Amino acid sequence: MDIFKEKQIRYTMPGMPSELYGKILNEINYFKGSARECNNYLCAQFPDVPSLTLGSIYSLEYQRRMKRNHPKVAASAAKFYDRFQEAVNRGDEPGIILRLAQEVDISPALLARMILEQHYEKLAPEVAVSVSKSLISRKMKDTTLIEDRDVAYEIYLSTLNDDQYGPLADVGKHSLGQEYELKLQRIAKDLKLAFRGEEHLRLKGYDKTPDIKLDIPIAVDGFMVNWIESKALFGDEEGHRGYLKDQYLSYWNRFGTGLVIYWLGYLDTIEQVNEKKIIVMSDFPSNITVMDPKCIKPPQL
């Protein structure tokens, strides 16, 4: 008797064609406007692509653009702070940082952080504070802690209107990631798969852990899966290579072959079986093969 049995689950989307992905990137790079406006535009241009997928592709491309632009803007942080103070002294309408950020194509929250750092560096001798990253992060999260009314309100407006960077954006991304991790756990529980979660594995001393470590492996089209990683984003080549280096290969070294789920889709050029270490999907597999414990023969004594 076969010790494995199949379970049917749901349809799994194939990878996004490179041609379609390239068209989406072109529209993103030529669009002038906020993230929300761009996402609405993309939904109208590509009605067959889920909104969350388009939003994730935009977010990844935006983050890369910010990495390119950030060093140049950061080098002139003092000048931007001076321009900010001049605008405040003139009595310009609120939204000064938002307008400066749009002018130099930088995230409002990133520019707000630079300006806040400059503000406290200039005040440090006067208020006797140590300007640390933790201090700036704390005041970015709670602008009521900023003593200067004008600076506090401008920082607040910047974080409120930035859905890619800053405290509010971080909360949104974290919540989305948790939502899909819980979805993965619910599916595994519904299938009665025995597994260990990330917290349990860390208690065992593992520093890098997948979201689910299966106690008993499953097979997906003949590929053995020992662990599953949930990613609430779109998987493109650059991001996938980074995760492969920083996470997936560590999981493979510790636990063997595994499955990565990019819930918001992935690019079809991502290698499906990376040297027989992992497979990539956009949903839980449409069919799996699980071990039937009743069919395991006890060892002969």
Automatic annotation (TrEMBL):
Presence of the UniProt keyword Cytoplasm in the record: yes
InterPro entries: CDIN1
Pfam (any one): TPD
Principal location class: cytoplasm
Keywords linked to the UniProt accession: Cytoplasm, Nucleus
Cellular component annotations (GO), alphabetically ordered: cytoplasm; nucleus
Cellular localization per UniProt: Cytoplasm; Nucleus
Lineage: superkingdom: Eukaryota
PANTHER family xrefs: CDAN1-INTERACTING NUCLEASE 1, SIMILAR TO CDNA SEQUENCE BC052040
Official protein name in the record: CDAN1-interacting nuclease 1
Organism: Megalurothrips usitatus
